[in-house]
Amino acid sequence: MSAPESHGIARGRRRFRPTFWATFCAVPALIILLGLGTWQVQRLHWKEGEIAKREERSQGPGIPLPGAFPDPAAVEFTRVALAGSFLHDQEFYLGARTEKGRVGFNVVTPFRLDDGRILLMNRGWVPENRRDPATRAEGQLAGPLEVEALLRTDGWKGVDFAKPPNKPEERFYFWLDLPVMAEGVSAGPIITEIYADAVFSEMPGGMPFGGQTRIALKNDHLEYAITWYSFALILAVIYFLFHYRPEEEGPDDAA
Question: Where does the source fall among the domains of life (predicted)?
């Protein structure tokens, strides 16, 4: 009577033998992780370009305001030098905005340029208890003025489902809608393609607090890219080690 055949483990011999279900799960996951990492690299390049554009356009002395704006996005963040006077009795409020943890509003005031055109200008932030112009009368500058500002485009910048409705009847806006706001100004002609964001300057009474446009943007896309690529590498290593197993001995090998 012969002894039963036995199959052992070949010492020092390993083979990469992937299994179906592990491969079925790992490959799509790896593709997704690599895709997320690549997407973050693309976002990194976009963000670096956006920051460079803002810095280039916003630095240096202000230029005269263009006479027309066929492509408002092409001049956004450009620093301009303006001469004219504010129409303080027709200001709007942009909320809710925060400054150092305090809730308030941005004051948007029509600015009559020396050439007769009117440009809406975000003068800056005020706290809730200073919404009434009488509480910040020192900052309601009168007469001919020279102001430097950054050109900005209007419209809702977020996702559509989160877009809040404005309240034109209260002169209160969550996002700037220049054509609608122009209807609330009893003067003209009004520039509706673009508005101005006043650069920071020391105001009498400290209000409004200008310089609300952010030039330096948070840029952590490189860290995210490294994270996703690291997850992909870890998954690939685990997948390989899991399937790189000792090879079983056949009957011929055991003889």
Answer: Bacteria
